[in-house]
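Listing S7. Sequence submitted for prediction.
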Amino acid sequence: MLPTLLAVFVVLVLPAPPAQAHPFGDPQTVKLAADGDHAVRVRWNVGMTDDLTWLAVHLGDAPGDRIMLDGAVRYETSDAQALASSPDLDGYLLEHIRVTAGGAPCSGSVLDKQNLVTDGVTLAFRCGRPIDRATVSVTMLTDLHPAYRTMATGPNGQRFAYSSGQPSHDWTFNMAAADSATTSKLGRSVVVQMSSMLSIVAAIAMGVVWLRRRSPRRSAKP
């Protein structure tokens, strides 16, 4: 009888343990692609549906009773629907996914978030200059738990794992421009090396001429 009374006391009197996010299941994913010359398109997908519930509760778009006393999260379809229709989600996305090109931030907008479970969210970032390379930062859900990870893919097989310790990464979106820049750098390097070699050869030639002038002439035999 005493153990039962103690259990009831713990449930009714003691505060519930803090709710915990679930960062140790399937990771979030982000797919990056160029959208013309001046824009980057980002598609974010949640790793597990209970993370949507956790985010909805965090933003005030789902009731707190989705979080169990033991910290478990109970996902319901209405949670994803409420989150998709919430203007708070737009602000959260644009705060935690950012694109910078040439040192200037790109203007972001949410294009599609109707089906969070299957399609995720699509965002577009328009920049004030042609995008060859851009820095993309992703901190989705790391404010809920620092162990969250986001697996990202980009053009031409580029990959990166975002984490709370590595929130930013540089991506190449215009491979032709990047290759051209590399070729140009190699060309300049070759020119510099050839100029250096010619300078060395010229210095050696001048040294030989100087030595010949300095060497004593032999007198002719009678």
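Caption to Listing S7: primary sequence and predicted structure tokens for the chain studied. Strands lie at 28-34, 39-45, 97-101, 104-105, 107-112, 121-126, 133-138, 150-153, 159-162, 168-172. The CA atoms of residues 84 and 113 lie 6 Å apart.
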